Amino acid sequence: MKDLVSRCPIEEVMQVISGRWPSLLIYYLKQGTKRFSDLRRDNPTISHKMLTLELRKLEDAGIVERSEFEGYPLRVEYDLTPAGLKLVPLLDALGSWWDATAAGRSRGSTLPVEVTE
Amino acid sequence: MKDLVSRCPIEEVMQVISGRWPSLLIYYLKQGTKRFSDLRRDNPTISHKMLTLELRKLEDAGIVERSEFEGYPLRVEYDLTPAGLKLVPLLDALGSWWDATAAGRSRGSTLPVEVTE
DNA sequence: AGTAAATTACGCACCTTTTTGTAACCACGA
DNA sequence: TCGTGGTTACAAAAAGGTGCGTAATTTACT
Lengths: 117, 117
Fold this sequence. Notes:
By secondary structure, chain A is mainly alpha-helical. Helices cover about 50% and strands about 10% of the residues of chain A. The first copy, chain A, has one domain (about 10-90): Winged helix-like DNA-binding domain superfamily/Winged helix DNA-binding domain (Arc Repressor Mutant, subunit A, Orthogonal Bundle), CATH 1.10.10.
């Protein structure tokens, strides 16, 4: 994903939050400060390479803050920035929208979805 | 992107609206009914393969409605569904968020970013 | 009148590009 | 030697592009 210069802010956000990991990482970081290894434990199927890449991307986007502490085994902490925190409800809104529109979709899911409308 | 069964609605939405095209297609469809070739004109850099794949995905997600008309050269129309329309303001909100947090980011943009720290 | 070509919205096969995974390596100190 | 938080190189997988084929009918040319 080369940094194609897009005229549209929506395109730009999507470049950052698109994909499998960003929303998950934001979700876990919302719970509070996390270390690199915490995030790997939270999400065991991400490779360490992906985790570093995605964290870097979120950091560049101003969503995540990285704090490095000197020491024995290097310690690095990750947090959501204030901007990142503001993003959370927007993602939640998407999730709610998805649930709300679930009726229209064809899913073999076992969960009976009750819709009044 | 195999249909990994995710427990989280946000993950599921992201699977649908992630990537370069969905937000753009939604943007253009918001302007009203569009035909396949209209969408290609709106967005000249998408290939016909991608356009069909993405439209299919949005259709499956209940965001886009496809209407096929019998005839000479086959005619197909695409529209946002009511659910799709409800998605629009959520994407707009993401765009606004991006613009609002623009100050924190490091861009080679010509706009002078003033940082106090 | 007869033939050729264009049109629309794709599907399919092949090939290239991009993304992601894997494994090895780094420094440091317990 | 292990654990920390990485980087790098190489390999595998996934995504995406290109071009051809298709239907049925109109239009264009001769």
